[in-house]
Amino acid sequence: MPGTTIVEPLDLVGLQIPYHFRCPISLELMRDPVTVCTGQTYDRSSIESWVATGNTTCPVTRAALSDFTFIPNHTLRRLIQDWCVENQAFGIQRIPTPKQPADPVMVRALLTQASAVSSPFQPRLSALRRLKGLARDSDKNRSVISSHDAREVLIDIVFSDTGSSELSVEALAVLVMFQLNESECESIGSDPNRVVYLSRMLFHSSIEVRINSASLIENVLSGTRSPDLRAQISNADDIFEGVVDILRNLNSYPRALRIGVRALFALCLVKQTRHKAVQAGAPATLIDRLADLDKCDAERALATIELLCRIPSGCSAFAAHALTVPLLVKTILKISDRATEYAAGALMALCSESEGSQREAVSAGVLTQLLLLVQSDCTERAKRKAQMLLKLLRDSWPEDSIGNSDDFACSEIVPF
User: Fold this and answer.
1) pTM score, two decimals?
2) Residue 274 in contact with residue 264, Cβ under 8 Å?
C-alpha cells in the first residue's frame, strides 16, 4: 500500500499518526481522502477497492451506499500535508496533492468537441490534448475515457481524410494508450490505406509520432487473429524499414526501444515476410541494441532473433555479425529461462548452418554454458535444445573436454 513507506518509519521513531488521518479501512495515513454519501472519509484507493469487490455498504456505519460518488476531502488532505511538513525532522515526506479522476461528463464533452468536424481546428486540438493528459494520469481515467466509445472516435480522427495532420497525430497519441478489440484491429488492418498511412508515419520527423505509429501497428497485429490480415499488414511497403530504424536510432530511449522490439517481433511472427526484416537490417540492429534492453525486451528481441534464424537469409546475416555468437553464448542463463531458450535455439540454427559459427561458439565458451544449462532448473525445451547443440558441436570440442561430457546423455535427443 502507498502508505506503508510512511507508517514504518513512524513506528520506528514512536511518532503517532493522528487517528483522524488514518483510513478506517487500511489504518494507514490517507494520501487521497474522499468522503462518501454517509459522511465517512476514507482513502480513495481503499474505498474504491472495497466497492470493486462487491460491497455496497459504508465500512464504518454499515449503512447502504445510495451514491457511489466520492467527494475529495481537500480540507483533511491539506491538514495531513501540513502535519507531514511539521514532522519532516522524523523523516516524514509530504504526500503529493493527488490528481482528481476524470469527470465522465467532461470526458464526453471533450470527445464530442474533438470529433466535431465542423468545429474550428484549435478547439478540437485542445480537446485531444486534454484527453491525452487525462489518459496519462491514471488507469482509472483511461477506463472512464474508454467507456465513452473513445477508441472508435479516435480511430476516425487518426485516419480522417479531411482532418488536419496535427489532429491525426494527437489522436494517435491518445489511441495508443488503449487496447483495441479485435473488430477495431480488423477495421484498421483490413484497410490498405490505413496501413499505408501508419507505415508512412514511421518516418515522421517526430520520434514520438514514429513510436506511436509502431505501437499501433503492434497493437493491430497482436489483436488480429487472421493470418492473411497479419500477412497483409507486414507486407506493407517500408514497414520493416520504419520499425527497424526506430531501434537503430541512437536517440531512441527506453519506450522507443520497447515498442520497436514489440512491433518487430509481431511483424516477424509472419513467416512469409521475415525476409523483409532481414533486408531492412534487423539482424545487425537487434545484436547492436541487445545490451540496451531490459529483461522483458531482451527476451522478445532474442525470440525475434530465433525467428529470423529460421530462414537462410536471416541465418547468414546473423552469422556475418562478429558479435552474434558471443552475445548469444553470454546470454545463456544470464537473463531468464525464456531468454536462455531463445538464445539456445538461435545458436542451434546458426551452428547447424555454419562451421564458422560452431568454432565461434566453442571459442566463446558455449560448452561450459550448455553443460550448466543441462544441469539447471531451466525449461525442458531449453535443455533439449542444449543437448542437441552439444551433440552438433561434439566434433568441435577441445579434446580434453570430450572425456568429461559423457555423463550428460547427449545422445538421448528429443526433437523440439
Assistant:
1) 0.79
2) no
